[in-house]
Specification:
Blueprint: E1 14-15, H1 23-31, H2 43-56, E2 60-62, E3 65-66, E4 69-72, E5 79-91, E6 96-107, H3 111-125, H4 128-136, H5 140-155
Parallel strand pairs: 1-5, 3-6, 4-6
Antiparallel strand pairs: 2-3, 5-6
Helix pairs in contact: 4-5
């Protein structure tokens, strides 16, 4: 992955109103945003691996955030879809309510990209002001702008 997390975001792959409060239905709703993505070679194969990974262990990060993901041969390059739920989605395997889901598909052949994206997400999401901005964004474009602003803040040189 060259560059920034915000470059992976596409307004068409961001849902700011996930409808279901049930984990598997909500996961399907968000993952489905990647169906037809040019880098996804087999959506059903990717989705099956996403569910299999989700059954292994919780993907909840805390702070009402989850990172459902799959390292798979069904994507050529890293792909990302985002879902936000105002009412929250119950992730019973982590016993947490999640309001932001970042669904990630990454090629098995390139684990470095996955680690880069997760690291960038964690740095952005650990700041409550960034989380608040993402929860307040009223359009997918505003969501991407909030991610971009958070990245800019992280990349800015520290002022002594």
């Amino acid at each position: 992955m060259a560059g920034r997390l915000s470059k992976l975001l596409d307004p068409a792959r961001i849902s700011l109103s996930v409808q279901s409060g049930k984990r598997t239905v909500a996961l399907n709703e968000v993952a489905r945003l990647l169906d037809g993505h040019p880098e996804v070679t087999n959506f059903q194969g990717f989705y099956n691996e996403l569910l299999a990974r989700e059954r292994l262990d919780t993907t909840c990060l805390g702070n009402e955030i989850a990172l459902p993901h799959a390292r798979t041969e069904h994507v050529h390059k890293i792909v990302l879809a985002v879902g936000r739920s105002d009412q929250g989605v119950h992730f019973e395997n982590g016993n947490q309510t999640v309001r932001l889901m970042f669904v990630l598909g990454t090629p098995k052949s390139n684990p470095g990209d996955y680690l880069t994206v997760v690291s960038a997400l964690c740095k952005i999401l650990k700041d409550s002001a960034n989380r608040d901005a993402l929860m307040r964004a009223d359009t997918p474009e505003a969501f991407i702008q909030a991610v971009t602003a958070a990245e800019d803040k992280l990349l800015a040189p520290a002022v002594a």
